[in-house]
Amino acid sequence: MIEFLLTLAPNWALEHAAPLLVIFPFMLAPIVAVLPNGRLAWMLSILGTGAAVIFSLILLGLVQTTPTGVVSYAMGGWAPPMGIEFRVDALNGMILLLVTMMAFLASIFSWPTVLAEIPTRKRALFYSAFLVCVAGLAGVAITGDAFNMFVFLEISSISTYVLVALGAGRDRRALPAAFEYLVMGTIGATFFVIGVGFLYAATGTLNMHDIAQTLPEMTDSRTVQAGFAFIIVGLGLKAAMWPLHQWLPNAYSYSPSFVTVFLSATATKVALYALIRFLFTVFKPDFAFEQASFGLIFMPLGIAAMVACSFQAVFQTDVRRMLAYSSVAQVGYMLLGVSLGTMAGLSAGLFHLLNHAMIKGCLFMAVAGVVLTYQGTHVRDFAGLGRSAPWTMTAFAIAALSLIGVPLTAGFQSKLQLGYALFDQGMWWAVLLVVFSSFLAVIYMGRILEAVFFQPPANPRKKRQEAPLLLLVPLWVLALANIWFGIDTELPLGLARDAAASAFGLGAFR
Amino acid sequence: MIEFILERANYWAIIGLMMIGLYIAFAATNMIKRLVGLSIFQTSVFLFYITLGVVSGGTAPILMGDDIGGGHDTGAGGEGGHSALQAADAVLVAGGGSGERFADLANVYSNPLPHVLILTAIVVGVATLSVGLAIVVRIREAYSTIESDEVREIDLKTAAKQADDVPPVPTEASA
């Protein structure tokens, strides 16, 4: 299919796909902002994210067909070490596809929830902020320049604060949540920029590829080590690495439903990508300081996230909050995979990243459907919904099983890969902890599923009330994707393996 | 020892400001004060970058004297701007390595790149601050306070109230 698209695409699209992917949603944003009509804004945002999906498919195709496996684009014609470079390889090609695809699905689904949750005169501005956020996230993933990455990170973050704060129409607690997120997010981004400054002081360049070339000579430099530490903390904050995740549960549970769907599937994933990019491409895994950080920081923190946040999820009564804590726990799985420092571990982490975006996107979409029709996110509001909204809840159940890791679902496959990678390193105890954390997932997802399918409805007078069709279609696309990729793992696992190979600098593709 | 300290006066100031800003951002309860702390923290990073750009004995990075239009590129008139750009390039590379073009310049210039970067970072900082202040205004409207501990208390009360009013559980018979 990708080859077909490549033959179909005009020359200008092939040549300029990388900047167009970011610029297209970016340029649409101010146009959308001045539109008087929310519905028109919604359609334009579908157009913008849809175009971004096509450009990211083209980029992925280009990456897979070029012999070096790298597509480099010099912004404004300034050659890379000086000018800003957009650099796409298998790793960020995968992330770009994930971000644009989730943005596309989320914006199709968004209209009914926006209609219900956002005041009329703010709808166009809301979509404008959303498009800026998409452009920012895609920019973080695509850029090859460390400082440019900071700028895009802040573009996406600032628009995210606005999007989260717009949840105030439904629940005023969105405002303190957005404020807290703003303070933590800004501190994270500033730490990142300090780290980039240290690297610039040591190497005299900001191009990540160029930094990577000069760094091996100066691994003992205190400057480089300090820069490494600052970057890890900064990006860890953005990626909700456990103890730095405090902003996440509130931001996810009070923001508008659509924003939660989009953020849970993309924002932390992109930050995690940035972390992987710095860990594996800029600093090499054989950097002794980094080796130590794998064993002493990422592995314990990943495991702690897996266990502690799953426990916290068990005790939540609000479904969205429970899923938010579970998100932090899932970031723990990814970090555990990354922290092995092996190709198998990294590809398992990336594979889980892809699957988790599908799982959480699907779960939050189903919750959004419930919020829309029943105005409640408490577990007891879910009672009996299996009978009154069977289509929504069946999709929810599929994604829930996938989150737990039941065989024949995508979640099982990524946990299997993680298990293989852990056994390779002889870390059977970590495998036991992964299984233990999955059992905790059985408890917290089981509580919801029990309420949904086996309890009498909270309000028996409300008869069948399904979520609107516009919402059901993307929901079921994701739910079926969970099953499809649970049986046929070739596509996502291939993407993840290629991504891991290119992160390790194995230029040859496949 | 004293020389060691004084030579790095800028960095001491930066570290001091950074710690003050970070502490305020975490410890203050007033949300405006937290934003002030955040701004101080960011400003210290701006200072850090600007300090990085200093080349000892260097002057402001504007080509002057023998460097204008001369040196490595003998382009005249219309090409003057182009060669100035190239010369600016040469200064940029100075940190990186290609020394010979840097050596062509008659004067020593500071590195302008960090300054340019920090212009961008200042814009980002302003945007963050304005969004933050806007959110504080909305919090003030919604809670009529901007103390985060009071806001938290109000939120806890709301949560407790929500947990209390359990709707009557319908029995199978009524359903």
Structural topology:
The complex is a heterodimer of chains A (about 500) and B (about 180).
Chain A: H1 2-8, H2 11-33, H3 38-65, E1 71-74, E2 85-88, H4 90-117, H5 123-142, H6 146-165, H7 174-203, H8 208-214, H9 222-238, H10 247-254, H11 257-282, H12 288-314, H13 319-339, H14 343-374, H15 385-388, H16 390-404, H17 410-424, H18 428-454, H19 469-487, H20 490-503
Antiparallel strand pairs in A: 1-2
Helix pairs in contact in A: 1-3, 2-3, 2-5, 3-4, 3-5, 4-5, 4-11, 4-14, 4-19, 4-20, 5-6, 5-11, 6-7, 6-11, 7-9, 7-10, 9-11, 10-11, 10-13, 11-13, 11-14, 12-13, 12-18, 13-14, 13-18, 14-16, 14-17, 14-19, 14-20, 16-18, 16-19, 17-18, 17-19
Chain B: H1 2-7, H2 9-27, H3 31-52, H4 80-93, H5 99-104, H6 113-143, H7 148-164
Helix pairs in contact in B: 2-3, 3-6
Can you describe what's shown?
The complex is a heterodimer of chains A (510) and B (175). In chain A, α3 (38-65) runs parallel beside α5 (123-142), α12 runs antiparallel to α13 and α13 (319-339) packs antiparallel against α14. Chain A is mainly alpha-helical and 510 residues long. The two termini of chain A are 18 Å apart. Chain A is built from 20 helices and 2 strands. Chain A is globular, with a radius of gyration of 22 Å. Chain A has a domain at 285-495. A two-stranded antiparallel sheet of chain A has the order 1-2. Chain A has helices spanning 2-8, 11-33, 38-65, 90-117, 123-142, 146-165, 174-203, 208-214, 222-238, 247-254, 257-282, 288-314, 319-339, 343-374, 385-388, 390-404, 410-424, 428-454, 469-487, 490-503; strands spanning 71-74, 85-88. Chain B has 175 residues and is mainly alpha-helical. Chain B folds into 2 domains: 1-53 and 113-161, Helix Hairpins; 78-111, no CATH class. Helices cover 66% and strands 0% of the residues of chain B. Chain B has helices at 2-7, 9-27, 31-52, 80-93, 99-104, 113-143, 148-164. Chains A and B meet through α6 and α7 of A and α3, α4, α6 and α7 of B.
